[in-house]
Amino acid sequence: MAEAEKRHPVTIEINGTRRTFEVESRKLLVHLIRDDLGLTGTHIGCDTSQCGACTVEVDGLATKSCTVLAVMADGASITTIEGVSPAGSALDPVQTAFHEHHALQCGFCTPGMIMSARQLLRAHPDPGHDDIRHGIAGNICRCTGYQNIVRAIESLVAKG
Amino acid sequence: MIPAAFDYVRAGSLAEAMNLLQRDPEGTKLVAGGHTLIPTLKLRLASPALLVDIRGIAEMKGIQVSENSISIGALTTHAELLVSEPLHQVLPIFRQAANLIADPQVRNRGTIGGSLANADPAADWPAVMIALKAELEIASVNGSRRVAATDFFVDIFSTALEPGEVLATIHIPRPATGMRFTYRKIRHPASGYAVVGVAAGVAVTGVAADVSIGVTGAASHAFPADVAAKFLVGKPLSRENIEEAARLQSAATECLSDRYASAEYRASLVRTETRRALLALA
Amino acid sequence: MNATVLHYIGKPLKRREDFKFLTGKGRYVDDIKLPGVLHMAIARSPHAHAIIRNVDLGAAKAAPGVRLALAGRDLEGKIGPIVPNWIMPGTKVPFRPVVAIDRVRFVGECVALVVAETLAQAYDAVGLIDVDYEVLPAVVDEEAAIAADAPQLHDNVPGNITTIYKVRGGDYAKAAVDADQVVKLRVVNNRLIPTCMETRSVVAHPDPDGTLTVYMPSQVPHMHRRWIAETVGIPEHLLRVVAPDIGGGFGAKMHLYPEELLCPHLARELGAPVKWWESRSESHQSTSHGRAHTENIEVAIKNDGTILGLKVETLGNVGAYLSNMASGGPTVNTVNFGTGNYRIANYEATSRVVVTNTVPVDAYRGYGRPEGAYIAERAIDVVARHLNLDQVEIRRKNFIQPADFPYRPYGGMAVIYDSGNYQGLLDKALAAFNYDARRNERETLRRNGIYRGIGVAAYTHMCGMAPSRRLASIGFDRGGWESARVAIDSSGRATVYSGSMSQGHGHVTSLSQIAADVLQIPIENIDVIQGDTRQVQAGHGTFNSRSMAVGGSSLHVCSQRIIAKAKKIAAGMLEVDERDVTYAAGQFSVPGTDIAPLTFGKVARMAYVGHKLPDGVAPGLDETEFYDPIGMSAPSGVHLAYVEVDPETGIVDIIDYVAVDDVGTLINPLLAAGQIHGGVVQGIAQALYEEVSYDPDNGQLLTGSLLDYAVPRAEHVPDITSLFQETPSPTNPIGVKGIGESGSIAAPPCMVHAVLDALSPFGIRHLDMPLTPPRIWAAVQNARNGAGQ
User: Fold this and answer.
1) Helices (H), C324-404
2) Which of B222, C509, C521, C570 could form a disulfide with B216 if both were Cys (CB 3.0 to 4.6 A apart)?
3) Distance of CA C632 to the CA centre of its chain
4) CA B268, chain centre distance (Å)
5) Which residue of A has its CA nearest to C714?
6) How far apart are CA C218 and CA C503, in angstroms?
7) ipTM beyond 0.95?
């Protein structure tokens, strides 16, 4: 432990911008995102990969960034909540639907939930009510009881 | 929440991974999806000296459906198994089972090889592999060998893998005409793992010509429900016969007990879920 | 110009605060990155009960990046002890050092700490701390803890009982004699983990000017300012507590924890910012748990279903020490409400507060009222089954009547239900639920071996603890008031400063609605500030469903004061008598004259230029209110659930859930329904899924992470029909009642009743929560094997 930890170069495309870092092997992707990139919209809500607050898109797939080593993300393209609707651009339809249907309260799970909702709608263009509940099973929300989140996603299905 | 320090190497080939693993089998861990290993490291329940990242190994990837068999690279994710159309055409049980594993994010990263090699007594794929009579291809610097899924799971988190060995590929014989499979599972409400899961397959030609059942969650490791299968083979797949087969299997199974569920409850689920799985195929 | 009267109260406005959260711009404590910040990590006890023989910090101190390593002994006499804020009369308060000194009493208790340059280094160094323990026998269960031979936790708490509280009205003993029957039951209110999605976190930052800023997710920033000041020894005026966005509170973020004292102390010692962040599995063993009661109940009844009397004996497990409010929860908050919505003239309750070798137990969404409602509701449901009476009709028969309000249950003085109409709630719920059709369906399906059940539960309680002068008698060391300040700028726009503290409730929207209606200015012209003790001078915060009834009323009164002063200024500007000025729709006018009206903005400008103010009117338009309510509001509700139980697996399928709640005047129906949805799901979680489990032999926490502790996901819960009835509260100017705790109070008995109804063909009368599939299955097996229940 006395010697400095070995670092590895990691290049990722984050919200459309290519960045290179030197990271310790043990650094988690979520810490790279939050601490090194300052993108604090991605949250940490547990340590066993249950809650989904840390969900980001890695190469287009919803991923729990607390369960990925930063070094393993080398070469990946990552989208965080900050990249979903960059400053100055319109909100994503999922974000708008969450607002319209009061699908958030404390907001802590919201970024991860939005990432999962986006993945659900990509993978499943016409999900039914149960599909929606199944599709967001990787994200825990303690405030809303999920009902308005489900409604928000349903509203996007109805719109086609 | 932060693992203890370790070193990290990305293996470009299976040979490279095997070489790295052989140098220090005890202190080295392979990582692919990482969805069991990384939480374990974060909670500092394990502290390996070296992680070998095998995700880039091309020869351990992909789903091949050929005339006689199906081969699945160990690095195939649950999500890939969920959406694979060629696989679905032959064995829809893959979609059914994959859809019941964990949650979408975990399915995007977690691999079938990782699930099998980890041998969690409540994991889903072991039951499916047993029912499908899969053979697991294991590689090491000494060459490769195949182990039947039935023999692969030895005990809690314990498999036939020897130190230095890597689970590389899963081979599944193409099911005989008329053989149909289904998977059922009672989920633990927190972990999502199976309290009991049953993968069952039958071929009926007047009577049950072939019966193959794998059970997970109930005991220290996934196992074939041979008692039920033997009872049913050659008999009509009637409600009464199914019930009796499930009852016999349940009685013959030595079940796990934990804080959440008693051994008696698990035994009862073995009976109920085996019966329900078989009824769905009858 | 067209004058329009603005009505915001009662409108389902979408939230004004959403956009930052939707775009990842919410700012929680862990998002605050200060230069030069040091990281604290805690070494926690692996034993439930042990003597600390020695703490060896040598290796930790020598580890890379470590700036400081301390054990409890090093802090002795410097900070602490941690004292409760609510001490019921007669309570024996155990000594609780900030960091354990010579003995640990629960798994997870702080025994030592490290401050290092990075979080990884801090964790690494904590792993090097070597503590020599002598393990003692532990006790985790409240019934076991009061047994004669139980391990004793504290020398000054003989028998492990800190507090005995009794409440009575009428004559229960006589009622029991007069009764046709006395029905008894024992119920367990399962221990829960509040599980805010944002765990706790603290950053303490010494400012160069001598002040210390503490960022923390506090439901009660002003209370924390006082407690930290008093416990760490910092002058209160030099301490600034900032609660930024909070990722849920539910009661868990309103207590005083060791880490909230250690960071300020160490930041001052080290002259650098010190941060602590709680991991989820750490949270399970360091943040307060909830509920954890056992109740023994007797009901004296007539055979026609009339309830003559109720007797309750409560054991409230509060863990190893008395946390902040712990002596009040199982006592006043629980047994005072044991008679529920029913006219029960003869009542007798005793509550014992019991220490055990477990994580301290304190407020969690409802705190005591869920336990109280569970007593009343389980009692009446058991009586209905016992007498074979309809579960709806027995409630209707015993309900407090609309004409009875204000109602003092069992003739006592402590509890007053201000207003209500339970019959109206019940009728509305039955209609929405399609009760008669469902009952028929249930009977038909039962004949086919399909087990469906209907659950009913009613609740009422009191929220917004007040008035201040009455809180002394129960040892509650804070007031019942709330502050509001309304500062109008020279353009007529308003900044509202509220002592309430949103943790996701949407106060920016709901408080703006209240202010806008009184001020008659567009809601867009109102900003709301909370959670910074340097900006909001004083307050109590958000708990006990008090924000709208107390914080909102404070703002209402304060806004009226703005208008009163503005009227004076307008009168001066219009050169008329103040009494002739009317304010409506944003305009000051003089009815019956042709004097041109003045807009609110023009009057605001005059207030600040001061050119034409009447004699005796000071410049400025900026008012502060310390509003102390005359009493507490009593929300109520009736909930119905429809379930199907698979007796072979024990799995419960929730088919429908209808909630009809009376929270007085609705400020925002959209947000109100959101509170009901969330509360009901937490209540369903208590009834079906969640339970903290300890090993009774060694006190190990068995539900140490979210892999074991079953917080529900979207798949586990149903859609909820949320409807309201509005019976205004006479205790405040808006007529509003509390809402936040309603769902988690109503849902547990409602769900349990639904499942038990489904299981009634098996003769199962009672099961303790959570009604997990294995537990239900075992009960069915026992019943089938003739053991009965």
Assistant:
1) 369-387, 391-398
2) B222
3) 15
4) 22
5) A133
6) 9
7) yes
The fold of C35-136+197-248+252-284 is Aldehyde Oxidoreductase; domain 3 (3.90.1170)
**Could you confirm whether domain B7-53 is CATH 2.60.260.20?**
no
**Up-side HSE of residue B256: CA atoms within 13 Å toward CB?**
21
How are beta strands C293-301 and C307-317 bridged, if at all? antiparallel
Please give the CATH topology (third level) of the domain spanning B179-281: Enolase-like; domain 1 (3.30.390)
Nearest to A81 by CA among A26, A120, A30: A30
Decide if pLDDT at C471 tops 50.
Answer: yes
Give pLDDT tens digits for C12-70.
999 999 999 999 999 999 999 999 999 999 999 999 999 999 999 999 999 999 999 99
How many whole angstroms separate alpha carbon C299 and alpha carbon C379?
Answer: 7
Chain B residues in contact with chain A using a Cβ-Cβ cutoff of 8 Å: 1-8, 10, 31, 34-35, 38-39, 41-43, 51, 53, 55, 79, 83, 99, 102-106, 108-109, 190-192
Average pLDDT for chain A: 95
What distance in Å separates the CA atoms of residue B169 and residue B54, rounded to the nearest whole number?
13
Tokens of C738: 């509390």
| C22 to A104: CB separation less than 8 angstroms, yes or no | yes
Q: Could you report how far apart the first and last alpha carbons of chain C are, in Å?
A: 74
If you average pLDDT over residues B61-83, what whole number do you get?
97
Three-class SS of residue C157? coil
Smallest CA-to-CA distance from C587 within C621, C611, C622, C563 is with: C563
Q: Which amino acid is at C288?
A: S
pLDDT exceeds cutoff 70 at C787: no
Q: What is the 3-state secondary structure (H, E, C) of B126-175?
A: HHHHHHCCCEEEEEECCEEEEEEHHHHEEECCEECCCCCCEEEEEEEECC
In tens, the pLDDT along C381-437 reads: 999 999 999 999 999 999 999 999 999 999 988 899 999 999 999 999 999 999 999
Contact A25 B55 (CB under 8 A): no
Give the mean pLDDT of A3-11. Answer: 89
Peptide bond into C467 cis (omega under 30): yes
| Residue C375 DSSP SS3 | helix
Q: Which two tokens stand for residue C242?
A: 């900032």
- Between CA C615 and CA C608 the distance in angstroms is 15
Q: Does B122 touch chain C (CB under 8 A)?
A: no
Q: Does residue B165 contact residue B254 with C-beta atoms inside 8 Å?
A: no
Q: Chains touching chain A at 3 or more Cβ pairs under 8 angstroms?
A: B, C
Q: Look at residue C414 in the predicted model and tell me its pLDDT.
A: 87
Confidence at C169, pLDDT banded by 50, 70, 90: very high
pLDDT at C1 over 50: no
| Confidence at residue C435, expressed as pLDDT on a 0 to 100 scale | 98
Is it true that domain B58-173 has CATH number 3.40.250.10? no
Q: Which of B189, A105, B188 is nearest to C685 (CA)?
A: B189
Amino acid identity of residue C217, one-letter, is: P
Asked if C18-25+481-627 and C35-136+197-248+252-284 have one fold, the answer is no
| A4 band by pLDDT with thresholds 50, 70 and 90 | confident
What H or E segment, with its residue span, contains residue B125? helix B125-131
* Interface contacts A/C by beta carbons within 8 Å: 180
pTM of this structure: 0.98
pLDDT digits (tens, 9 = 90+) for C367-382: 999 999 999 999 999 9
Domains and CATH numbers, chain A: 7-84 (3.10.20.30), 93-159 (1.10.150.120)
